[in-house]
Design brief:
about 55 residues, elongated, mainly alpha
């Protein structure tokens, strides 16, 4: 595509995946917080295991 042929008023450089259909449902804040706490606990356990093996 030639740059001069691009309509400067309507071009769109936003990130979009044309293969992905529809909108993604957003999770509730409480659900995200719960997931983060679970992942933090798992990370802490792994780090403790690594620390003990050193």
């Amino acid at each position: 595509m030639d740059v001069p042929s691009i309509d400067q008023n309507t071009f769109d450089l936003s990130v979009k995946n044309p293969s992905k259909g529809g909108e993604v449902a957003l999770r509730e804040t409480k659900e995200i917080s719960k997931s983060m706490k679970k992942l933090d606990a798992e990370s802490k356990k792994i780090l403790e295991e690594i620390s003990h093996s050193l």
